[in-house]
Amino acid sequence: MRVLLLLWLVFATPCFAGLFSDDEAHKKITLQQQQILELQTQNHALEARIMKLEETLKNQGLLDLLTQIETLKAEVSKLRGQIEVQGNNLESLEKRQKDFYVDLDTRLRRLEQPTQALAPDAASAAPGKPADATNAATENRSYETAYNLFKTGNYAGAVAAFQNFLKTYPLSNLAPSAQYWIGNAYFAMRDFKNAIVSQQKLLDAYPDSSKAPDAMLNIASSQQELGNTAAARKTLDELIAKYPVSDAAEKAKKRLSTIK
């Protein structure tokens, strides 16, 4: 009996050992599967977090971009407002300048142009006077046509019209004024070199004209625009010396105080 028991124990031990080994292996496999499952779960969680972070970053990037766009829009709007204000100021300044030119030209023409109208008895007594009056009217219309072009801002047209006026009526009392407005038209077109040349023609041909002081003032302005400050100061000094009681001389004094 003991022998059988011993034999049984001897041969049965490996079977139990094998049984125990299979259980341990199964446990290990199960543990690994659990670990893999946990890792997969963690991986999914990480992937979800990454996706969430990416979305957050994308949204944050768009938010920053939108913020920058809104800031730029505000700056553009501010600049447009400033440009509009400056534009209105410029239009107002140009209007005041044109109004000044109109008033100045009207006053100077009254001084330069003698009375053309004749009394009825004088016209009938002197032969040829009606024709002279007609010529004077045509001359005035030609001048007014050119001057209206200047007033409406058609400076190139004004230059051509005034030049044609000077060719047609070289001895007209309005010739100095025509030459003066040619210079001013060039100045308005920012053609400062031709503005200087045109006004210098007036000074050379009509040094005693009432337009001469303003022509020198325009020359000084053109020289300033060209960056020739020294020449502008010299012109203003000459203007004050030659025409000390003129309105242009007073303006020249004020301008000299601002030129460095």
Shape: elongated
Class of secondary structure makeup: mainly alpha
Strand segment tally: 0
**Secondary-structure element string:** HHHHHHHHH
Roughly what is the average pLDDT, rounded to an integer?
Answer: 76
Q: Total helix count?
A: 9
- Radius of gyration in whole Å, from Cα? 49 Å
Largest sheet: none
Would you write up a description of this structure?
It is a single chain. Helix 8 packs antiparallel against helix 9 (247-256). Helix content is 85%, strand content 0%. It is elongated, with a radius of gyration of 49 Å. By secondary structure, it is mainly α. It has nine helices and no strands. It has helices spanning 2-112, 120-125, 129-151, 155-168, 175-188, 192-205, 212-225, 229-242, 247-256. Residues 15-21 and 114-126 have low confidence and may be disordered.
